[in-house]
Structure formats: C-alpha cells, structure tokens
Amino acid sequence: MNEFTQFVVGVWLQVPGWAQYLLIIVGEILAIVIPVILVVAYMTYFERKVIGYMQSRIGPNRVGIRGLLQPFADVIKLVMKEVVLPRNANRFLYFLAPVLAILPAIGAWVVIPFYPGVVVADVDAGLLVLLAVSSIGVYGIILAGWASNSKYAFLGAMRSAAQMVSYEIAMGFAIVGVLMASQTLNLTEIVQLQAGGIWHWYFIPLLPLLAVYFISGVAETNRLPFDMAEGESELVAGFHVEYSGTAFAVFFLAEYTNMVLISAVASILFLGGWLSPFEGLSWIGQPSTFWLLLKMAFFLFLFLWFRATFPRYRYDQIMRLGWKVFIPVTLVWIFVEGAMIIGNVHPWFA
Amino acid sequence: MLSPGEIIYQALFYLFAGAAVLAGLRMILTRNPVYSALFLVLAFVNVALLWVQMGAEFLGIILVLVYVGAVMVLFLFVVMMLDINLATLRQGVTRYAPLGLVVAGLIIAEIVWAVWGHFLGVGNTPQTAASALSNTRELGTEIYTHYLYAFEVAAAILVLGIVAAIALTLRWRPATKHQNPGQQMRVKADERRIRLVDLKAGKKGEES
Question: Is residue B13 in a domain?
Fold first, then answer.
C-alpha cells in the first residue's frame, strides 16, 4: 500500500506543472458537478414521492427498494430515446440551447462555499458573479423556443423570458439587502458574519427580503406556481415541447440544478450557511456542511410543497406580483434596513 | 520561463480577445439577425472576461449582468418577433458606405485621442489599486465621493429617458377591460363565493 502511494506521488510529480494546474481545476469541477447531478437525480425521486404522499398516492415504488433506483431508470430511458430535430428548425441553435441552459446552472456553483475554504473560486464579488452567471440562463430557454420553429415553444419562451427578466430585478434588490447587512460580496464572509446562533442570522431582520428572494427564485426557475414557460395545459410543454431524449434531459437537469442553487444561496445568505442553529452547545453547535445541506433540503422541500399546493398563476398576475408587489416591498425594506443600520440594531448591525 | 498560471493566463487573454474581435465582426457580417444578436452577446461576454482578467471584476460582472442578462435578452426578443426583411435593409449599403466610413473613422480618432496619451503608452497602463479594499467598494467610494454630481446627473438623465419612453408608448384605450386585484381580494367572506367542505379521509376498503 505504501509503495502504491509512493508510486502515485511519483507519477504526479512527473506531470508537468501546467497539466497539474489543469488537473486540479478539473478535479475541483468534478467534485461539485457529480454530487450536484446526484442530488438532482434524487430530487426528482423525492419530488414524486413527496407530491405522491401529499396527494394520497405512493409514488414510484417499482424500481429497486421503495423505488430508490427510479432516477437511474429514468435517465437510461431518456438517453435511449431518439433526439428528434423538427423540420425547418435551426439545427445549430436547437442543439446549442440546452447547452446554454445547463452551462450557467452548473457554472454558478463555482462561488458557492460549502465550508470555509471549501469553494472552487473564493472571489470577492461572489454574490455578483452568482447573479451575473445565473442571468445568462434565460438564453437557453429563448433560443430553445425560437430554434424549435414551433409556436407553442415560442410562446413558452417569450413568457419565460419576460418572467425571468422581471423577477431578476426583485431578486437583485433582495440581495442588495443582504449586501447592506454584511458590507461584503464574498459569500464565505457573509456566512461568517452571521455567526453566534440562530438569532444572528439575517433572516430575522430581512424576513421580507427572504420571502421575496425565495418566491422570485421559484419564478426564476419556472417552477409551479409560476411555470408559465411550460404551461402544460395550454402550451403542451412550452419551450421544450420539441425536445426529446437527452436534449430534454439536459433542460430538466438545468431546471433542477437551478432549484438546488437557489436553495443553497438562500441558505447561505439568510440562514447562516454551515453555521449551527444551536451555536455554543457542545457538539451540536459546531459548524458543519451538514447544516448547509439540511437548510438546502428545507428550501427544496418548499419547492415541492408549493407545487403540490398552489394553482398556477395567471400571466398578468405573475407580472403584477413581480413589478407591483415585490419590487416596492424590497425598496421599502431597504430603507427600513438603512434605519436599522443607523440605529445599530443588535446583534445584526453592530 | 513563465509559471503554469501565467501561461494559462496569457492563453486565456488571447482566447478572449480573439473571440471578442471575431464575434464583433460576425455580428456585423452575418445575415441572420438572431445570429447577429447572439454574436453581440458573445462579444460582450468575452469583453467582460477580459475586464475581469485585468482586475476590473466589478465592471466585467456588471457588463454581463446588465447587458447580457437583461438588455440583449430584450433585443433578442424583438429581433425574434419581428420578421426582419434583410433585402430591404441592404438597399443603399453602397450609397451610405462612405458616410459610414467617415463616422467610423471619427469615432476611432476620438477614442485614440482620448485614450492613447494617457493609457496606451507602454508601461503606462492604469494600475489596479493594490489595497485591501475590494474592487466594488473602491469603485463605490470613488463614484459617491469624487464623481457624485456627474453620477447623479447620469442617473437623472436615465430616469428621464425611462419616463419619456413610457410616456411615448403608453396609450389608454377606453375599450380594454381591466381587473382590480385589490377589489377582487376584498370580496366579503360571508358572500360565500367558495364553500370549504371538510371531507373525512376514507380508510382502505371503505365507501366514502
């Protein structure tokens, strides 16, 4: 065993410097992408189970013990299917669209810290990078709608583009609130500033912003009750109606990856990331990635809960909610927060 | 001998710079307007990456956030909706070409005049401030202390532009029907618009 380790170390030292550099980067990327994809896979299973029980059904229970292998069965099924290119579709953009959807969804994870130091790129402007990268995701949907050469797909794409651009503004303002409280854009520092137990987390002074952020997140990812982009009842499946097989699977992957991302960001910004709610109480008060995962699971459950509970919004109601309710709420709360900062409200704005 | 990091840094610089120039050219030369918009997006992204490489991370990110994430989406939107007839657009290209060249030359001359003497001399490039403050904070301090009035004027002009654009396009049509969500929500509960019924959950094999 020891010889084997020496052998591995020897091989590694033979690798030229630039290749080592690249290999480490690729390794870091894989260390994030593979767990994220596994989470997405089991998210679909969890979704079907949770919604199943909420509707007095059992959900998938055939593949593996209690249906635990269902995600893999789904993946195999999707990969085996033929990818159909509609007639008169724009071939290049048709296949570029899913790539543009998945790229920002996974790329945004680069700035997400899982623990102090456990982050691919610990950049100063992490929060801005996150906003910028996730704002590119809308291109995948628009291009999918246009390149499919189908009116349903195009209608879905237009709805979704308007919706995503509108809710990004509310989301941005909610993040401005966090920025004012933390005075930094670095996500690791934002979490560390919330240290000191559950009463120090930002969700207490910024509760309206958390609500706006998360609901905008649901709208951003085109999840129910804001799934106007798909609108199963009137647009068949919206922007991805013409996609089949792997190309469809990639859109699906992007949507779920974005859900996990929104949950992670909400946990980091408002619920203290990896910090324990019982800080100071022996072993249970230790910070750990476990807490971050638990908080993410809570938000992901909310996504499913919303889906099982609320009927779909009408389109003008979505726009009204985004522009006439959320943006004013965030603007007002930014001033309230400014007052709290001036008043040195403890323990958040000390 | 350059370190591995530096080699990759330089390779990336030439990749981004080359892609930005090529995308800019293709944006003008391509026939399909949707492709044009997409090449412009590509050019923006590459320029943003160049800025980030130079240490102007805030500007680079804001370029992506504002121009790629919002402005170009709306452009693309419009281009996709309108069926632009390129044949009519191309009429008179040769007639207007000389004027276009003059304008292009003027703009280039102005940029060179403004920038060359200060920044493009070798070894005279603007240095990134080596301070503990982050890029964003630094920029904020500059804008809100030294350039406050210019910044406020720019903001006022932007607001004016927004108001003007809305005022020009807003038309009240008397025939349209509106809903008042506030009124809809103030429906009295005792009007019994909805009756909620408590259904007992049935057990297996039991008729409900």
Answer: yes
